[in-house]
Specification:
Glycosyltransferase; transferase; mainly alpha; 49% helix; 12 helices; globular
Length: 336
């Protein structure tokens, strides 16, 4: 099993949290921290099998940050400035969903009992709320499904998943464009992943299979000449030319995560193969043929353009690269 370097992630992190942005490799402290990234930190730190004191320390820091972000009713702030002051009000937008995703993942995977216990307490608080945003609910549903793998029947998780399923529109019935939205936008794969996760957790084979079918369509739509070609920042509709730029590493990580979950529910080879395509995208098998991370430090580059790479190594892109590499290790043959 190949070790993943965490050097750059640690260099972006101080005693409060992980800075959101970087100028090349230098943290841009003036932009502060956000729950979106600290949720990703908690996931990466707690699913890492080669845990160390540093990883456990990162998990504890992320857990404290997410706890401080929550209000008493479960809604969540997102942004903290470098002085440690929250700059926004609690809401149930995407960061709330990512918070629940991370807490459920930590409860299921951390090897530190206190982290698992605190993650469940925080999950219960946040799970009292609901969101009108589809991706927020999808992230929250994935977290609830993770929690149910270690606490079957957990009341708040079951209720959240049940309410999530009730928000889903029926299938479009359009074989050419089965996607539940008129355009692909961002974090697309989590919509399919949440269906798979909820279908498995609630023993709803129909919902699991719908998620698998949507994910298979998305993988096919975002594959070109044997490599991944993800939806760019501006989105992608049925009549848009491909490839599109600027491509974001977080889209690749979302595809990898969804395919990793699909592989646990369906034995077909498409899922591990796509996880390895996601790894290959970071290593240069992409529309520009350019490497999208620094394997010496673990830093991820912020965007892929038609004419080059955005060399800044912010937290989101770094964590996207790390999460993808973590998943890819499951499916990489061990040398004899």
């Amino acid at each position: 099993m190949t070790a993943i370097p965490f050097d750059h992630l640690l260099s972006l992190t101080d005693h409060k949290g992980t800075f959101e942005h970087a100028l090349l490799t230098v943290p841009r402290r003036e932009h502060g921290y956000c729950v979106d990234d600290m949720a990703r930190v908690l996931v990466v730190a707690t699913i890492e099998p080669d845990t160390t004191g540093l990883m456990n320390g990162l998990a504890g820091k992320a857990l404290r940050f997410l706890n401080d972000a929550q209000s008493f009713n479960g809604a969540c702030r997102n942004r903290m400035d470098v002085g440690g002051h929250w700059t926004d009000l609690p809401t149930t937008e995407d960061h709330w969903g990512r918070c629940l995703w991370a807490l459920g993942t930590a409860a299921a995977h951390s090897d530190v009992s206190l982290v698992r216990k605190l993650a469940v307490i925080q999950f219960d608080r946040a799970a009292a709320m609901r969101s009108r945003w589809p991706r927020a609910m999808a992230f929250a549903a994935v977290g609830a499904a993770e929690l149910l793998t270690v606490e079957p029947g957990h009341r708040a998780a079951v209720a959240l998943l049940t309410d999530y399923v009730s928000t889903l529109d029926p299938p479009t019935g359009d074989a050419a464009w089965p996607w539940p939205e008129p355009r692909l936008t961002y974090a697309n794969a989590v919509l399919a992943e949440a269906m798979i996760a909820a279908g498995v957790a609630l023993e709803r084979a129909d919902l699991r299979d719908r998620g698998l079918d949507l994910l298979e369509w998305l993988v096919g739509y975002e594959t070109s000449d044997g490599h991944l070609s993800p939806t760019p920042v501006g989105g992608r509709g049925p009549d848009d030319a491909q490839p599109g730029f600027d491509q974001q590493p977080i889209e690749i990580a979302a595809i990898a995560a969804a395919c990793g979950r699909a592989a646990d529910a369906d034995p077909r080879s498409i899922w591990p193969e796509t996880v390895l395509l996601a790894q290959a995208w970071f290593n240069g098998a992409n529309d520009a043929g350019l490497t999208m991370w620094d394997p010496a430090t673990g830093g991820g580059f912020d965007g892929l353009h038609a004419d080059g790479v955005n060399q800044n190594q912010g937290a989101e892109s770094t964590l996207a690269a790390m999460a993808t590499m973590q998943l890819a290790r499951r499916y990489t043959p061990v040398p004899l």
